[in-house]
Each structure stands twice: as structure tokens, then as C-alpha cells.
Amino acid sequence: MAIGNTAESIGSKDADPATESGVERLIRTVGPDMERVNALIYAMAGSNVDLIPEIANHLVSSGGKRLRPMLTLASAHLFDATGDAHVKLAAAVEFMHTATLLHDDVVDDSAVRRGKPAARVIWGNQASVLVGDFLLGQAFKTMVEAGSLECLRILSTASAVIAEGEVLQLSGAKSLAKGEDHYMAVIEAKTAALFSAATEVGPVITGNSGAAQDAMRRYGLYLGLAFQLIDDVLDYGGNRDLLGKETGDDFREGKATLPVIYAYQRSDDADKAFWKRCIEDGEIRDEDLDAAIEKVRTTGAIDDTIAVARGFGKKATDALSDVPPSPLRDTLGDVVEFAIARAF
Amino acid sequence: MAIGNTAESIGSKDADPATESGVERLIRTVGPDMERVNALIYAMAGSNVDLIPEIANHLVSSGGKRLRPMLTLASAHLFDATGDAHVKLAAAVEFMHTATLLHDDVVDDSAVRRGKPAARVIWGNQASVLVGDFLLGQAFKTMVEAGSLECLRILSTASAVIAEGEVLQLSGAKSLAKGEDHYMAVIEAKTAALFSAATEVGPVITGNSGAAQDAMRRYGLYLGLAFQLIDDVLDYGGNRDLLGKETGDDFREGKATLPVIYAYQRSDDADKAFWKRCIEDGEIRDEDLDAAIEKVRTTGAIDDTIAVARGFGKKATDALSDVPPSPLRDTLGDVVEFAIARAF
């Protein structure tokens, strides 16, 4: 299933609840607020300097899932949010994410982002770095408008942690020896920290702290970990029929993700040499991606990575038991199921 | 005169007030608080990811002037600051600046920063982008700890405006036709906005608003404009005996600063061709920098740029008349004189 930009573009308002996925129901539930978030996002991308809205809108309109701001909205609505502070926070969360994407593409020398040419390919690395900085500045401005110092603490901490995770990833790039602990530290910082902050601000902006805040922090953290693990599984096709165009980015960039780490650990000498040549030396031939996909499957690396994701998914769902029951809480539970079911 | 890192390294505690420059007196006055700022800066640069303190300390220990955090401290002390909130804001201001330098060097392909190899030359563009992002995140975290939403508004707005100014500069790079208005818009955003925010937060963090806040906002704004104009004059040697190693960076990078814009506007066809070849086409020969310095002097471009800086310096000094008189206020007036006197 494709996940699109707005409630209008995806979630049918009269969808059948019985067959609807967690994310479809999430989109339908937060749809009206997401329209406010989207309007704010376009306003935040505005500038008299033409290059800024040009680049920002290239990303903003490129069909990203907007999962993070939807999670912020849902988390706030769990605690009966009113007003517009949670809308501002949701837009800020999406801009933090967008700024990260712009810089990531520069760091990774990426050619493609969301099926379109990466901004850096069209406008260059210089503009991508600077417009990323602008979006981050706008994100902080918008958070400040939400008026909660505790939310600012949560989100500014996430901002530093995300960058720290990217540097950690860079320092272990193209290395198979760093192993599982390093990988987990990277994805916790670069991905799960923002999911966690995105959901933690929900109770806070509605005046809740203590157990509710801690529960939503953990929910986002574990969902983010599961989400990234499944993303990394999908880069090798998951357990689905292969869709060539969606696979192999991590492989080509020499990223030692968990499927690769597991497969490498279970390899004989010949296969270890294969992984070293591809991941560490970056010498990749035409047939290597297919061979890599074969190896991560036959060694059980894919299944075991999915099992790790399931473990975190369980923790995310458990965290929800510390917030009051509601249909929206059930939806957030189903979002966890959905994140993992993408692998199949 | 060189400006150094701390009060200890420069300002003699028993300096003769009659011969001391404004900046020397500023350093002496805020010295004790700057030691707290410096300790905080080193703490903020800490991380378990080794590459981060390595790169951050390369810049932090490279003898930058730390003029901006000193201005924040002085501005807060004008209004009898106590506690440590102003120290946190000063450190955050310096980190915002440091993050900008890391990204600027990537954008400008710079080889040298403060007389040392630029971080990007040693650790690469990727690490420079990501560590810049980390420093910005740490800056925001530290601002949040200061606990003032109004200061957060001021500084986050500056953060977005600075990036906007950098993009504006990029969009007009290597163009002589953009002219004086474009140049002024660039330096107001990329330089003066941070000076302005750095001084505006002084009254705010001490509980003052209204006229005091507006006065210190204007003081920093106009000081920042004067400061950048004189920096751009100094890149062509100012009116001093030439110091080859300090000149020509802007010229080599094709930056159409005000001295160049004025000289170009006053040129005959042959000289116009010279400037176009050097600035717009980037075809620079060994003897061209000397020729450029000759031209910006003989056309009066240097003198007239200094005159513009003097005009802003006057406005900065005038702004101080709206805050209560004190020896420290006089020192801030002398800082303006010092900023301009650097040209001679």
C-alpha cells in the first residue's frame, strides 16, 4: 500500500474499518488537523529568496508519508488536544525531518529521494546544506510559537541526538566489524529519537507529564526502532516479491545494516569475502545485489531482523497500556502492526 | 591588534584605561563570565561519538574572537544580570556562529579557517555538515535551559534569517550586477542578524523589554553591519600596509562585496572587463589581487565603504543612548569605534 500526503489523497473518509490498516485509520483520524499542518508547512517554506521555497517545496510536495507529524497529532489527541499548539509542533517535527533529508542526501551523495531527483542533484550541495539549515531554523521558530519549554527541550535534544547518530553512522561507514550494537545505537539516534520526540510532545503540549509522557516517549522510541529495522529489511526486498526499483540503496551505499551484519556473521569465508568486497571496498558488480538478497534470505538474516523489529513493536504496544484506552490508542497500536507488516 | 580567546590570553587585568581599546576593555569586563562560557562551550562539544569533540574543538580552540558571546554577556550586564541564564545564551550564540562557520566552509570550498586548515579539509564535507547540525542542536538545547521563550524566539528567528542570508548570497554569487542593495540584504541577514540577536537577548533575559530591548536589538544590528563592512574592506587590506596572508579571500571566491561593487561602478570599460573576468568568470592570475587592491583604493571604493560603515557605527552608538548610562555602556560605544578602526 502506498502512503500519501494528506487524508484527501489516501484515506477514504468512508473506508471500511474492518479492512483499513492502522496507518489508513490514522490518516483518516488526524486528517482535518493534517490539513492545518500542511498549510503551515507551506507557509514555513516561504521566503523572499526564491531558491528556498523552490527547494523546500520540491521535498514538501514529493509525497513523503508525513508519518511523524501524524504521530504528533495523534499523540496530542489521545489527551484531548485543542487550539493549535500541537499543529505547530507537528509541522516543526516534519521540518526537522525534511532538513535531515536534505543534509543526508548531501552526506550520502544520493541521486534520488522519494522517486524524484534529490535536491542536491538539481540545485547542488551548497543550496541543499543552506536550505536544510533554513528549514531547521523555521522548525525551531515554529516550536517556540507553540509556547512549551518542555516541548522545546524534547525536540532540541532530539535535534542534537539525530545529528550525533548521523556522525556515528558516518564514523562506522563501510565497516562490517562494528556489528549489531553500533547499528542499534545509530538507528536509535538517527531515526527513533525523532519518532520518540514526536510522540512525547503530545501529552506534554496538552498539560500532561509523568507516566503519560514517559509512555508516549517509549511508544515513539520503540516504534521508530521497529520502523527503521523494517526499512532496512525492505532495502533487500523484505519477504515480498522483489520490486527492483525500491531495493539496494543501502547495499550500493555500503551501509552495514542489520540484515547484512547477520548475514556476514553467518557466512563462510567465501561469503565473508563477498560482503567485504561489496560493503567495505564498494566494488559492486551488476549481479551482486541479487546475490546479496539471496544471501540475507537463506542465512535467515531477514527473518531474524524482522524478529528484532517485532520485539520492539511489542514494547511499543505495551507502552500504550499506560495511557487511557480509546479508539485512537487502538489505532496507534495498529500503526505498529502496519510498520512491521510492510515487510510482507 | 589581535583579539584572542579569553580575558587571560589578551586583556591585561591592570591595563591602562587611557590606551585600552573598546574590545580590550570589553574582554576585561566580561572576563570572569567568559570563563564560564568557555567551560560550557567545551561541555557542549562533548559526545561519545569521538569525531564530534575532535571537530568541534578544532574550531573552538582555534582562537576565534568570541565577540558575539562577549556582546551577549555585556548586554546582559548592562541590566545587572545574575545567575547563569545569560552565560547559557552567550554559549548558545557562539555555537550558532560555529555551526555556521562549519557549513560556510563547505559551501565556499574553503581551505583555511582562522589560519588553520578548515575542518572540511581534515575530516571532509560530510562530517562538517553533520557536526555543524550537532552544534546547532546543542545551541538550541542550551538556549532552552536559559528558560526564556522570548530569547528562544529571538535566536531561532536569527537562525532562520542567517541561513536565508547565506542562500541569498549563494543565489547572487559571482555577480557584479546584483549591486549594493543585494549586498546589504546579504550582510544584514548573514552577519548582522546574529549580532543583533546576541545583544537583544541581554535585556530580555534580565526581565527588560520595550525600549531597552529595542535599543540593544538596534545596537547589535548596526554594529554587525559596520563589522561586516570593515571585514570586507580588510579583505582588500583596508587602508593599512598590506598583509598579504590576510587579504584576497573574498576576491578569490568571487564575492562581490561593497568595495568591489563601488569600484566596478566607477570603472571604465577596461576595468569593468577586469572585474568581470576575476569575479564573474573566476579567471584570476597572480598579479590580479594587487591590481584589485590598487583599483578599490584609487576609485575611492575603500574610503566610501568605510564611510558607510561609519554611518552604521553612528547608528549603533545612538541606539545606546536609550539604555541607562554606565561605564559598560561606554565600553560598548568604544567597541563600535574599535570595529571601524580595524580598517586603519
From TrEMBL, chains A, B:
<protein>
    <submittedName>
        <fullName>Octaprenyl-diphosphate synthase</fullName>
        <ecNumber>2.5.1.90</ecNumber>
    </submittedName>
</protein>
<keyword id="KW-0479">Metal-binding</keyword>
<dbReference type="Pfam" id="PF00348">
    <property type="entry name" value="polyprenyl_synt"/>
</dbReference>
<dbReference type="GO" id="GO:0008299">
    <property type="term" value="P:isoprenoid biosynthetic process"/>
</dbReference>
<dbReference type="GO" id="GO:0106350">
    <property type="term" value="F:all-trans-octaprenyl-diphosphate synthase activity"/>
</dbReference>
<dbReference type="InterPro" id="IPR008949">
    <property type="entry name" value="Isoprenoid_synthase_dom_sf"/>
</dbReference>
<comment type="similarity">
    <text>Belongs to the FPP/GGPP synthase family.</text>
</comment>
<dbReference type="GO" id="GO:0046872">
    <property type="term" value="F:metal ion binding"/>
</dbReference>
<dbReference type="InterPro" id="IPR000092">
    <property type="entry name" value="Polyprenyl_synt"/>
</dbReference>
<dbReference type="InterPro" id="IPR033749">
    <property type="entry name" value="Polyprenyl_synt_CS"/>
</dbReference>
<keyword id="KW-0460">Magnesium</keyword>
<keyword id="KW-0808">Transferase</keyword>
